[in-house]
Amino acid sequence: MRDVAYIALGSNLGDRHEHLARARDAIAQLPSSRVVAESSIEETAPLGQRDQPMYLNQMVAVETSLTPRQLLSKLHEIEQAEGRARHERWASRTLDLDIVCFDAQTASETDLEIPHRGLADRPFWQRELAELREKR
């Protein structure tokens, strides 16, 4: 089954633009997938009341036949390739990739909630999602 996944990209360490660019390229190379739209890039304050650098954020729409679990696994591989280390929640990161939602699929597992439980609390995700849906 083909579906469209909306993936949020974020970076606040190192060359943020380059991390997002490499993530977009890696996402475009995923098996049984193709990027169908990209939102604008915007700079946002960090979440979690932390004193850390500003984030660059963007969202991409990806038509894929990967399951949500398969897609999450591939996104974690992309994060690791960009030097992402998962040690502390809300910590700064070279790259953060989140599945925000799918057009048709949902998931409710311990480590995979689709739509993402943070969608309602992140106005920048809502703006980016609206922009992508307008483009499609």
Structural overview:
The protein has 136 residues and is of the alpha+beta class. The chain has three helices and seven strands. The protein has helices at residues 16-28, 68-81, 123-135; strands spanning 3-11, 33-38, 42-44, 55-64, 96-102, 107-109, 112-114. The strands form two sheets. Strands 1, 2, 3, 4 and 5 form a five-stranded antiparallel β-sheet that branches. Strand 6 and strand 7 (112-114) form a beta hairpin. The longest helix has 14 residues, at 68-81. 32% of the residues are buried. The model has no long low-confidence stretch (mean pLDDT 94).
Residue fraction in strands:
25-35%
CATH homologous group name: 7,8-Dihydro-6-hydroxymethylpterin-pyrophosphokinase HPPK
**Top CATH class:** Alpha Beta
Low-confidence segments, given as residue ranges, are none
Overall radius of gyration? 14 Å
The SSE string, one letter per element, is EHEEEHEEEH
Question: Tell me, what's the shape?
Answer: globular
Average pLDDT level: 94
Distance between the termini: 19 Å
